[in-house]
Amino acid sequence: MSIEPAFPYPVGSGGRLVWAVTLCIAIVAPVAGQEPAPATEVLRFGTDPTGGAPYIFKIDPAGPYVGFEVELASYLAHKLGRRAVPVEGEWSTLPELLDKPRHGEKGIDIVLNGYEQRDDLLQHYAATVPYYVYRLQLVAHAEDDSIQQWSDLRAGKRIGVLEGSVAFDYCQRRYPGQVLPNKDVAIMFEEVKRRGRVDATVQDNPACAWFVFQEPVYRGHLKIVGEGRQPGFYVIYLRKDDLQLKRQLDDAIRDGFRDGTLQRLYSKYGLWNADQQWLAWSLTGQFPPEDDAPIETLSSSGGGSVIPLIPKLLQAAGMTVFLSVASFPLAMLLGLLIALGRVYGPSWLAAPLTLYVEVIRGTPLMLQLYFLFFMMPKIHPVLALDPLYTGILGLALNYAAYEAENYRAGLLAIPRGQMEAALALGMTPLTALRTVIVPQAMRIVIPPVTNDFIALFKDTSVCSVILITELTRRYNELYNFNRDLVVELAILTAALYLLMSYPLALVARTLERRWGTPHVPR
Amino acid sequence: MAIIRIHHLVKQSGGHRILDDVSLTIAQGQVAGIVGPSGSGKSTLLRCIVGLEPFDHGEVWVHGRWQIRGGVTAPRDTLLQLRRTVGMVFQQFHLFPHMTVLRNVMAGPLHVQGKSRAEAETIASHWLERVGLKDKLSAYPAQLSGGQQQRVAIARALAVQPQALLFDEPTSALDPRMAAEVMRVIDDLADDPALQVAMVIVSHDLSALRRIADVVHVLDRGRLVYSGPADEALAPNGPTAHFTSSEQPR
Ligand SMILES: Nc1ncnc2c1ncn2[C@@H]1O[C@H](COP(=O)(O)OP(=O)(O)OP(=O)(O)O)[C@@H](O)[C@H]1O
Ligand SMILES: [Mg+2]
After folding, report:
1. How do B198-202 and B31-35 pair as beta strands?
2. Burial bucket for residue B226 (CB in 10 Å: 0-12, 13-18, 19+)
3. Which of A202, A352, B52, B120 is paired with A282 by a 20 to 30 Å CA distance?
4. What are the φ/ψ torsions at residue A82 (nearest 5 degrees)?
5. pTM
6. Which ligand 1 atom is at minimum distance from the Cα of B42?
7. What's the average model confidence in pLDDT over A429-433?
8. In chain B, what residues touch A423 (CB-CB under 8 Å)?
9. Across the interface, which of B90, B140, B142 has its CB nearest the CB of A421?
10. How far is B99 from chain A (nearest CA, A)?
11. Are residues A90 and A146 in the same domain?
12. How much distance in Å is there from the Cα of B41 to the middle of ligand 1?
């Protein structure tokens, strides 16, 4: 078992590859009529590391990403004279990252992450030639004799599938009522191994091959049942107008099949099979050269310690704190303005403000963040904000609605006479609000507002959907690569949240004591 | 010269006239009492004068310069100027509970007249001394008795140097001892020849009015039924006889 870092692309027999690249540049450059891209130029590929092995994962938690797609990206980038850089996203929304500016935050050049060739995506994006032929495979427990072939599933077997995947669709139609969708690939193999909530799982063959034959924790406990079904293509998606990039990638994939590079790469992860032979033949008109060199294999180690992960969790906790302290003051300010508008503003303003509050409070924060992040740029490119700004803005806009209700209650609790006394003194309404009404309302709302701050603090975890690596998202990543530390990681993460929110609760209680019941002599 | 002139003021509510063609004049430095049975419109009249309550017809003139007209929203600046000229003291004090006594009285100079903090503090201490509360500067309103709170309210109103001060039943929320203490302060201010602040006092305390007021106006069901010298108005068989006998123990 040899473990190699993913970057730079590992060269089996270096001389040949260098030669191939040199030749490639020599050929491409004059034809393209321009200089080859400088070596520092990057190829940013959208990927979701939480998808896990064998696509993209880590063996050493502190080390770089590995996985057959990571190595494929390195190989392709190398062929293009570029350097591959992963850009992390949420799997189901990766193609939408192509709608964002290429060089902005979370900007990408390509999506390379087990995406099948799909008509709906081809309407909006261009795709390369296939780089892999996958099949749906059925995996059951090694000792489960009741599942020997696909048709055995009909006996009411419970089938775990990845939500929204082709396998999900396939099983839903064939075995209605028996499908248990899940968002986590590994958890389904885990359930099959434990003979727990599902009897079998249907997934793309790369994941099956990895968990059944390579992953030490599962090896020997699982079996592949029957033949793979419903073959399909993994392709790389890119922008429709990226014609040159598409041609370069297509050529690189063909070259990779032709000279055996991809065969070696896929074999390393146990993914080379007859389907890939056929793909190579149909893309290049020839079969890859036979190669008798020993095949490297790769597998995750398992059995680590949680200690090296702590700095990573702490770093993400910093982001959680930053999101909270950056967004909450905004939410308070905005909420106060909304409340003042509703209680003291002109009558035409009341209706839109009420609508805002009700819409925000009546829809999930996650949806609002999705809207800000993915929809706004479609309305106008100028509205394409960085994830961090989007997160702060989204939290602020959301919590403003709740703070507005707090402040409104506070403002309404101030007796009418206070405003009248201030006006009778000759204050302008604005001065009266600023010096008399709002300071009193503030004191009334301190307890609920502080509680909301604690709630927002925990709600920052929702920002993980727009790719901000805060504590919860970091936990998810780490846990994907450290299955043996699941419990320790969960406890550690929860402890961090508690460690940060408990002092806040204490501050809240102190403020409440000091200001909650003001000016009444005790 | 008139500091406040009310001209045929009418305020209606649901077809019923709360104030019905009221006209009266308050001269500079004059102390006027307003009496009348409960619900006769006394408070409403005071609130109309300072623009806290809109009315339907007629006019309110202050200092011959600032005018509120019936049925029309007064311009903002008019209201601000007018309220700086005519102060108001409420039955329920309405002190700002989140400010100390000193800050309450500083509020006007500071936030209305734009004076410096030091200046405002000097003015505020002066008026608090005047109402006998020099030793309560850093107390909060909730730590004071009702009579003390009302005296702070009077100091707060005076600190912006108004030309007239309206009192809406300043003592009726207080027990007799504290009421007397507040009336003594008002009395003292009324007697100060240097002060020259006109006062309009709505009160059921007829003996106090008899002592302080130059004139008394009698309201009954929204109509002004009598204006004249206090002695005459408050005589046992005068215009107030029919409603004071049962309500006024003293
Ligand atoms: N905002 C309002 N809308 C409608 N009617 C009102 C309003 N305010 C007062 N009124 C009515 O107007 C009349 C006069 O009320 P006002 O408070 O001026 O009387 P008052 O002479 O001050 O009485 P009191 O001696 O009890 O304080 C009453 O009949 C009262 O019910
Ligand atoms: Mg009244």
Report:
1. parallel
2. middle
3. A202
4. -120, 180
5. 0.68
6. 21
7. 95
8. 52, 83
9. B90
10. 9
11. no
12. 5
Please tell me the residue having the least CA distance from ligand 1 atom 31.
B39
Cβ contact B87–A424 (<8 Å): yes
Is the Cβ pair A415, B157 closer than 8 Å? no
Q: Which of B84, B94, B95 sits opposite A426 (nearest CB)?
A: B84
Q: Tell me which chain A residues have a C-beta less than 8 angstroms from the C-beta of B107.
A: 422, 425, 427, 435-436
User: Helix/strand/coil (H, E, C) string of chain B?
Assistant: CEEEEEEEEEEEECCEEEEEEEEEEEECCCEEEEECCCCCCHHHHHHHHCCCCCCCEEEEEECCCEEEECCCCCCHHHHHHHHHHEEEECCCCCCCCCCCHHHHHHHHHHHHCCCCHHHHHHHHHHHHHHCCCHHHCCCCHHHCCHHHHHHHHHHHHHCCCCCEEEEECCCCCCCHHHHHHHHHHHHHHHHCCCCCCEEEEECCCHHHHHHHCCEEEEEECCEEEEEEEHHHHCCCCCCCHHHHHHHCCC
Q: How far lies A343's CA from each of A126, A349, A405, A438, A468, in Å?
A: 53, 10, 11, 12, 36
Average pLDDT value over all residues in chain B = 91
Question: Does the residue A85 lie in any domain?
Answer: yes
End residue of a domain, out of A284, A317, A350: A284
Tokens of A139: 């995996």
Tell me the C-alpha distance between B229 and B212, whole Å.
11
Query: Is the beta carbon of B13 within 6 A of some atom in ligand 1?
Result: yes
Q: How far is ligand 1, taken at its centre, from the CA of residue B222, in Å?
A: 9
Candidate from A164-168, A287-291, A313-317 with smallest mean pLDDT:
A287-291
> pLDDT tens digits for B179-219?
999 999 999 998 888 888 999 999 988 888 988 999 999 99
Minimal Cα–Cα distance from B241 to chain A, Å?
33
A414 touches chain B (CB under 8 A): no
> What three-state secondary structure class fits A240?
coil
Partner A, chain B 116-155, Cβ-Cβ below 8 Å: 140-143, 153
Task: Give the orientation angle of helix A347-362 with respect to helix A387-412, to 10 degrees.
Answer: 120
Q: Is the CB of B38 under 6 A from ligand 1?
A: yes
* Among protein residues, the one whose CA lies closest to atom 4 of ligand 1: B13
CA-to-CA separations, B23 to A107, B35, B51, in angstroms, rounded: 76, 15, 16
Beta pairing class for A42-47 and A83-88: parallel
Number of domains in chain A: 3
C-alpha pair distances (Å), B20 with each of A12, B12, B35, B55, B243: 104, 8, 16, 11, 19
Kind and range of the H or E run holding A140? strand A132-141
B73 ligand 1 Cβ < 6 A: no
Query: In B, which residues are within 8 Å of A520 by CB distance?
Result: 142
Do A114 and A138 share a domain, yes or no?
no
Answer yes or no: do A357 and A462 share one domain. yes
B51 CA from centroid of ligand 2 (Å): 16
pLDDT for A31-82, tens place per residue? 333 444 444 689 999 998 887 888 988 877 777 888 999 999 999 999 898 9
CA-nearest residue to A516 within chain B is B98
Q: Assess whether A435 and A363 both reside in one domain.
A: yes
**Residue B162: cis peptide before it, omega within 30 degrees of 0:** no
Assess if residue A55 is contained within a domain.
yes
Which strands make up the sheet holding A110-111, listed edge to edge? A83-88, A42-47, A110-111, A237-238, A126-127
Task: Tally the residues of chain A.
Answer: 522
CATH code for position A39: 3.40.190.10
> Residue B113 burial (CB < 10 Å; 0-12/13-18/19+)?
middle
CATH number of the structural domain spanning residue A323? 1.10.3720.10
Distance CA A367, CA A385 (A): 16
Domain span at A192 = 134-231
Q: Using an 8 Å Cβ cutoff, are A271 and A135 in contact?
A: no
